[in-house]
Amino acid sequence: MEKKTCEWQVNDELMKKYHDEEWGVPVHDDRKLFEFLLLDAFQAGLSWQTILRKRENFRKAFDGFDYEKISKYNQKKLDSLLQDVGIIRNRLKVKSAVINAQRFIEIQKEFGSFDKYIWQFTNEKTINNKIKSIKDIKATSAESDAMSLDLKKRGFKFCGSIICYAFMQAAGIVNDHVVSCFRYEKVEGYKK
Q1: Class of domain 26-186
Q2: What ranges make up the beta strands (E) of the chain?
Q3: Angle at CA 6, nearest 5°, toward 175 and 34?
Q4: Whether pLDDT at 36 is above 60
Q5: Where do the structural domains in the chain lie, given as residue ranges?
Q6: 122 DSSP 8-state letter
Q7: Does 158 have pLDDT greater than 60?
Q8: Which of 30, 5, 29 is nearest to 19 (CA)?
Q9: DSSP 8-state symbol, 26
Q10: Which of 22, 64, 122, 163 is most enclosed, with most CB atoms within 10 A?
Q11: Is the pTM of this model over 0.90?
């Protein structure tokens, strides 16, 4: 018998693997949280499928998503990234990766970890939405609005509420698997 799943990923193996193994699983590792933050910023105006297909290129181009290294990128490195056909070559998004890495480190210093900071927007709990159909999935929430506002205040770029909500879904801060999906309960019951 075939497992029930979220409809958005069924015709693409990479999306299926991402759905089945990563999407909605709560993330508490700062490096992984930064990876999702960077990728979601680059996704702005594009599909997640496009970003997933380039994910390994991003990993290579951005030093394994090492925010310490990225925070120190100079103009020469930025220019080389803008020549890299394996990633999204958008000048503002590339520059935002450096700015966001710098702000990320500032938050770590203030809160002890980015994990402690980012999970405060949901009182350190995953919001398990009871989605019956993918048509019911929201693009933003009160929590993503608050996260976006605070990140912007701290100087982050490409962190609007829609991007923040996509980040929350990726990092398991929000569980938007449809309730009939085999992953819903697995993610809902996930423990740190």
Answers
A1: mainly alpha
A2: 127-128, 174-175
A3: 45
A4: yes
A5: 26-186
A6: G
A7: yes
A8: 5
A9: -
A10: 163
A11: yes
Q: What is the largest CA-CA distance in the chain?
A: 55
What is the rounded CA–CA span in Å between residue 146 and residue 65?
25
- Tell me 178's DSSP state: B
Residue found by looking up tokens 């405060």 in the block: 120
| Rounded Cα–Cα distance for residues 19 and 9 (Å) | 7
Distance CA(176)–CA(170), nearest Å, equals 10
Q: What is the pLDDT of residues 60-112, one digit of tens each?
A: 999 999 999 999 999 999 999 999 999 999 999 999 999 999 999 999 999 99
Comparing C-alpha atoms, which of 96, 88, 95, 120 is closest to residue 107? 120
Tokens representing 77 are 């490195």
- Reference 67, options 25, 111, 24, 29; nearest CA is 29
Long-range interactions of 68-74: CB distance < 8 A, separation 24+: 68/101, 68/105, 70/38, 70/97, 70/98, 70/101, 71/98, 71/101, 71/102, 71/104, 71/105, 73/97, 73/98
In whole angstroms, give the CA distance from residue 40 to residue 89.
Answer: 15
Q: How far apart are CA 38 and CA 24, in angstroms?
A: 17
| 68: number of Cβ within 10 Å | 13
For tokens 């105006």, what's the residue? 45
| Token pair for 129 | 């939405």
Contact indicator for 97, 126 with CB cutoff of 8 Å: no
